TrEMBL record:
Protein name: DUF2723 domain-containing protein
Organism: Eiseniibacteriota bacterium
Entry-linked Pfam families: TMEM260-like
InterPro entries named among the record's database cross-references: GT117_domain-containing, TMEM260-like
Coiled-coil residues: none
Transmembrane segments: 31-50, 62-80, 100-118, 165-184, 221-240, 252-275, 331-347, 354-373, 379-400, 407-428
Transport as UniProt keyword: no
Alphabetized UniProt keyword annotations: Membrane, Transmembrane, Transmembrane helix
Length: 657
């Protein structure tokens, strides 16, 4: 297959949808129709089940970063930040609502590209003349159904209804898979072009666009690496077919194609320059301060997350085996069962396509199982997509072998849509977010209940610290309160951020701060360090900060922080915090505990991990406050104990469900 430099340039500049010269035959059914058929119904589901307020974990921080054009937690997410900033400029509705809708739009678009990838897979299996037994229209319909199954899986749906970075990641995942499959298109002899549907071969434009897309994708989320082995297979197969001489191992044309791929990758990855450029301007939120080369590398590589990797192969194997029932629950039983047939039968028709999806399944499953984190579900989106593709392939091949297949296809398709709807109904409470807005109620209740000018120490990033960044710096709720994340105090970049958020807060502890940061610098630079001394100075810094302010402003901790390091005389349960040495007027009554009624309700996301944790925390603080009131022989203890009992019984119902 000869191609000179001029031909390479013509391919790069020709519109991506235009056919090669000489391609004849009737056109395929339009790709845009397949895309919209998959994405629009899912967009409706996502919008109907959208989060109504703050979400948990990173939701508040990401919204605040978009509002202030800051730097988010690793790997920084510059493209999401810029898109979120554009959404923030739209003069309609609440900022959170706009960002939730952005996630829904991106996830729906990802489902559309997934339908195109599934259609490309079926095209690879059925476009040869001897296998052309199912019409293009039916292949498109099957692809749309497969995209619906994937888009309604918890891996995707849970992230599509709340402001998170995964919607954009799913776009890069699905679109890169689609382009990788295009690279597997076979060469079509001229004699067959009149027989086959319009099916242009892949060329250097697809590879260049894939490089650009991967650059953008890696600047956004490193888990796009799940798909790299499969894309490497597709690119290698494409380059092998483009050799100038049959005996040549590598020739100049392929070197130029690879160079083009690298250039386009770097062009896409250049969006990451936002991080050092913006960090140098010292924005309010500047996680990691990636203004230097070393800090930038640590930030974009997710250096701090290495501690979450599973400790050994036994853990990985256990996680993989534990995921198998999860695939069944998340995707239904039809496609996972058919995937076994697809894994076998598709090898005989198009081995490269089968290998592409098999590699993605194995790498995605094993890599995701290597992480020991709570919010792991979204990491299984790649392996779930591979299961859907293999299942759809197996189902289509089996149906193609049946006589009167059009009748069979009709009878198979008629109940499939209701089954998908029924499966979505069963997963509604798990995936939808239109129930009681518990994360927002919890964070707002905690923040609003604090005494004036409180200094709060907390490690509850997932339930309140992240959310309170949004509440304080976007909604401007309780700007008098200073919130210190005790885990982030272990990072040197956090101290300048505290100076920007709460000017003067750290002034009384400059000596202790400087001592700690001197030792911490050795650890962060990879030099020999004294772990015991670092921990000792870290504890001393917290104690000094507490002692510097306890006589001038209320000081408190959330219950997971060890209050003993502050050596205070009277820690008092008050609302959702432990308040040190409070005035007499705060020692009686129920205190500012959140109302328990919303946390007793049933509905979407009222039984997930974060909801159970919030119920547990409220229940424990109610019991602690009741015990404190009983010790003082003050009224109100029985009511608090009753509320705690309600919450615990509700949690027991969650466990049974």
């Amino acid at each position: 297959m000869m191609q000179d430099d001029a031909g390479l340039w013509r391919n790069l500049t020709r519109p991506l949808g235009s056919p090669r010269s000489g391609a004849t035959g009737p056109p395929r059914s339009p790709l845009w129709f397949t895309f919209l058929s998959a994405s629009l119904p899912l967009l409706g589901v996502y919008l109907f089940s959208l989060q109504r307020d703050l979400g948990t974990i990173d939701s508040g921080e990401l919204a605040a970063v978009c509002h202030t054009l800051g730097i988010a937690h690793p790997s920084g997410y510059p493209l999401y930040t810029l898109l979120g900033r554009l959404a923030a400029l739209i003069p309609w509705g609440e900022l959170l609502t706009r960002l939730h809708i952005l996630s829904a739009l991106l996830s729906a678009a990802a489902a559309g590209f997934t339908a195109l990838a599934l259609r490309e897979t079926l095209d690879l299996l059925f476009k040869q003349a001897r296998y052309q037994k199912i019409s293009d229209q039916w292949l498109a319909r099957l692809s749309v159904l497969g995209a619906w199954v994937w888009g309604l899986s918890p891996s995707v749906w849970e992230q599509a209804v709340v402001n998170e970075v995964y919607g954009l990641h799913f776009v890069f995942l699905s679109l890169s898979v689609y382009l990788g499959l295009i690279l597997l298109r076979p060469s079509i002899p001229a004699a067959q072009r009149s027989v086959l549907l319009h099916y242009p071969e892949a060329d250097s434009r697809h590879l260049a666009f894939l490089g650009y897309l991967l650059g953008l994708g890696f600047s956004h989320h490193l888990s796009l690496a799940f798909v790299l082995p499969s894309l490497g297979l597709a690119a290698g197969y494409y380059l092998y077919r483009r050799r100038v001489r049959p005996t040549a191992r590598f020739d100049s044309i392929r070197w130029k194609i690879l160079l083009t791929l690298i250039i386009f990758f770097m062009f896409g990855f250049s969006v990451d320059l936002y991080l050092p450029l913006r960090a140098a301007q010292e924005p309010l939120l500047n996680w990691g301060d990636p203004s230097s080369w070393a800090r930038w590398v640590r930030h974009v590589s997710g250096w701090q997350y290495r501690v979450w990797l599973a400790p050994g192969s036994d853990t990985v194997i256990t996680n993989v085996l534990g995921r198998i029932p999860g695939i069944w629950n998340d995707l239904g039983w039809v496609l996972p069962v058919a995937a076994v047939a697809g894994l076998i039968l598709s090898w005989r028709r198009r081995a490269m396509a089968a290998l592409f999806w098999t590699i993605l399944l194995a790498v995605g499953l094993i890599w995701a199982a290597s992480y020991d984190i709570k919010d792991i579900q979204s990491y299984y989106a790649a392996s779930d997509l591979a299961v859907v593709a293999l299942g759809l392939s197996g189902l289509a091949i089996l149906l193609s072998r049946i006589r009167r297949r059009k009748v069979i296809l009709t009878f198979v398709m008629l109940p499939v849509a209701p089954l998908i709807i029924f499966g979505a109904f069963l997963r509604w409470d798990r995936c939808a977010a239109d129930g009681p807005p518990l994360p927002g109620l919890y964070a707002r209740g905690l923040l609003e209940g604090l005494p004036e000018k409180t200094l709060l120490f907390s490690r509850q990033w997932d339930t309140c610290v992240s959310a309170m960044l949004y509440l304080q710096f976007v909604e401007e709720l309780r700007p008098d309160v200073a919130i210190v994340d005790t885990e982030l105090l272990r990072r040197s970049w956090y101290y300048p951020q505290l100076d920007r958020m709460y000017p003067g807060l750290l002034d009384p502890v400059r000596p202790q701060r400087d001592e700690f940061l001197t030792d911490l610098a050795s650890f962060e630079a990879g030099r020999p360090y004294d772990a015991v001394r670092i921990e000792t100075r870290y504890q001393a810094l917290q104690k000094a900060l507490h002692q510097a302010w306890v006589q001038r402003r209320p000081t408190a901790v959330t219950p997971e922080v060890d209050a003993r390091i502050f050596e205070t005389s009277l820690p008092v349960p008050y609302g959702m915090v432990i308040l040190f040495d409070p005035p007499e007027e705060l020692l009686s009554g129920r205190g500012p505990l959140p109302l328990v009624e919303p946390f007793l309700a049933f509905g979407p996301r009222t039984d997930d991990l974060m909801a159970r944790l919030m119920r547990h925390l409220i229940s424990n603080m109610a019991v602690s406050r009741a015990q404190f009131l009983e010790e003082r022989e003050a009224p109100g203890a029985s009511v608090l104990l009753e509320e705690a009992g309600w919450l615990r019984r509700r949690s027991e119902m969650s466990g049974r469900n």
